[in-house]
Amino acid sequence: MVFEESLQKLVDNYLAWDKNEKFRKQIEDLVAKNDEAELRARMFGKLTFGTAGVRARMEAGFNRLNDLTVIQLTHGMAKHMLAQFPRESNGVAIGFDGRYNSRRFADLAANVFIRNGIKVYIFSDVVPTPVLSYATALLKCDAGLMVTASHNPKEDNGYKAYWSNGAQLCIFELNINQTTTIQSMP
């Protein structure tokens, strides 16, 4: 099935860029069912930082939380860190909760930071959010990242960023939305 040009381009890009078979299959199934409404819901728009980071349903699509969007968000955060701290980075602390995919998303983020030359301190097990915040300040990291959706439903996950003092970044301080365009880069 071929959809309207802008939707088809997003579907093609997503399928070309996402390497996770589970998420790719979700899009392939929607295409096979000719479910244009659901494809539009998942493909148009993009993840944005709110007052407590990014929270979204774990599904395939550019405005959902999945392997591809975690990589893209982290690339944007890494670019922002390198612009803010042009000297040798003091690194980033990464924590995750026990939610499905949290460890996977934390590992993906760690790989992106490392590829950008940013030192990573990642917890080996589940930690509560305040522990990540404290570790960020204690280790004198430039930033912290916590993969958690807090009180959101189990189908969701989240991406919370912290400054070197352990305080959560707000949208005024970290505008990753300007740093990376989620739909236009792998």
TrEMBL record:
Coiled coil: none
Claim: Zinc is one of the keywords in the record: no
UniProt superkingdom: Eukaryota
Pfam families per the UniProt record, alphabetical: PGM_PMM_I
Domain Alpha-D-phosphohexomutase alpha/beta/alpha: 47-169
Keyword match Isomerase: yes
UniProtKB keywords: Isomerase, Magnesium, Metal-binding
Molecular-function GO terms, alphabetical: magnesium ion binding; phosphopentomutase activity
One of the record's GO cellular component terms: nucleus
GO BP, one annotated term: carbohydrate metabolic process
Family, per entry: Belongs to the phosphohexose mutase family.
Protein's name in the database: Alpha-D-phosphohexomutase alpha/beta/alpha domain-containing protein
